[in-house]
Amino acid sequence: NAGVTQTPKFRILKIGQSMTLQCTQDMNHNYMYWYRQDPGMGLKLIYYSVGAGITDKGEVPNGYNVSRSTTEDFPLRLELAAPSQTSVYFCASQSFPTGRGEAFFGQGTRLTVV
Amino acid sequence: AQSVTQPDIHITVSEGASLELRCNYSYGATPYLFWYVQSPGQGLQLLLKYFSGDTLVQGIKGFEAEFKRSQSSFNLRKPSVHWSDAAEYFCAVGELQTSYDKVIFGPGTSLSVIP
């Protein structure tokens, strides 16, 4: 079972470049999330989606954009990369909105902006 | 505001020794509580969760956690640690928002296991 798949695993960007982090899940989950993980800070929510065509901001959305055209895909876009966006990015999905469901995580994308 | 603290940034234990990882939360109502484990280079995997009922919950890989409302704690325990348990452990608290699950993660505790 594939679960949640993120690509790429690693990427180095120059300041001002743009890129898209891909996330795909094959569990037919409605709820999908993008987090960033910084050392000693835990995970912070960037954006989330409760279904195809519906997205909203999390705690730290500045500098990012998302779209959700299908249930399976939830790409994260960085338009003008900045050093502050150096982080590890995780995509997650779950089937229930109530907190009772288990969130399934991808393996992460390690992004360095230089 | 809701928050989660994990007082220990890093813990080292010997293989076969017992383990307790601390987690404290700040939340007004009864929270949903989780422990996740992150092995090197991997995403997070759910170890166990508490929603209601029995305050001692069992998880995968021989882990358990106890919810203590009076102490606002949800400590993770394992009676005998294996070398493969070396990883980063995250405590998290969840609450139902109007549209999605808001889950707040603690900063994590890194566990090293000495053979």
List the SSEs and their pairings.
The complex is a heterodimer of chains A (114) and B (115).
Chain A: E1 4-7, E2 10-13, E3 19-25, E4 31-38, E5 42-51, E6 54-57, E7 64-66, E8 76-78, E9 87-94, E10 104-105, E11 109-113
Chain B: E1 3-5, E2 10-14, E3 19-21, E4 24-26, E5 32-38, E6 44-50, E7 56-58, E8 64-68, E9 73-78, E10 87-96, E11 101-105, E12 109-114
Parallel strand pairs in B: 2-12
Antiparallel strand pairs in B: 1-4, 3-9, 5-6, 5-10, 7-8, 8-9, 10-11, 10-12
What does this structure look like?
- The complex is a heterodimer of chains A (114) and B (115).
- Chain A is 0% helix and 51% strand.
- Chain A has 114 residues and is mainly β.
- Chain A has one domain: Immunoglobulins (Immunoglobulin-like), CATH 2.60.40.10.
- In chain A, strands 2, 4, 5, 6, 9, 10 and 11 form a seven-stranded mixed β-sheet that branches.
- In chain A, a hairpin with a 2-residue loop joins strand 5 and strand 6.
- The termini of chain A are far apart.
- The model of chain A has no long low-confidence stretch (mean pLDDT 92).
- Chain B has one domain: Immunoglobulins (Immunoglobulin-like, Sandwich).
- In chain B, a hairpin with a 4-residue loop joins strand 10 and strand 11.
